[in-house]
Amino acid sequence: MPYYRKLISKILREYWMSCHPKDYLFKGRNQNSHLTPRSVANMFHKYKDKAAITKKASVHTLRHCFATHLLEAGTNIYHIKQLLGHSDISTTTFYLHLLRLDSINVESPLDALKSLSLDGRS
Q1: Any idea what DSSP says for residue 35?
Q2: Which residues lie below 8 Å from residue 27, measured CB to CB, with a gap of 6+?
């Protein structure tokens, strides 16, 4: 399990142990309901403004950055698909066009053949 997943699991476990939520892991303003996507978006914008971040962003921007950073770190596209919950890999491949090719160390098998011929081997 990657480090960040272990860390998130630990934090969530500690939260659960200290708060013992019975119905919802994260309760909304009304203690009888869950935290809604709108509530999350409102909190995101509140703290984005508080941090004086002026760049246009949304909660989805965080998801997008998460996927892009995983890809740049060399995470397999199929693992990213699973983490994002995509049912079709073509949805996940959208992130491929964002990848800086100079950020990955992929060597073509043809490059290996070229270096062999330069060494005098065939």
Answers
A1: P
A2: 21, 33, 34, 35
- Provide φ and ψ at 74, rounded to 5°: 95, 10
66-119 confidence digits (pLDDT tens) = 888 888 888 888 898 998 888 998 888 877 766 555 555 666 677 767 666 555
Distance separating alpha carbons of residues 115 and 122, to the nearest angstrom: 10
Residue 79 CA to its chain's centroid (Å): 10
pTM above 0.85, yes or no: no
Residue 85 per-residue DSSP state: T
To 10 degrees, what angle do helices 77-84 and 59-72 make?
160
Q: Token pair 């950055």 is at which residue?
A: 65
**3-class SS string, 55-83:** CCCCHHHHHHHHHHHHHHCCCCHHHHHHH
Residue 46 Cα to chain centre, angstroms: 22
CA distance 120 to 14: 61
Q: Which of 96, 77, 66 is nearest to 5 (CA)?
A: 66
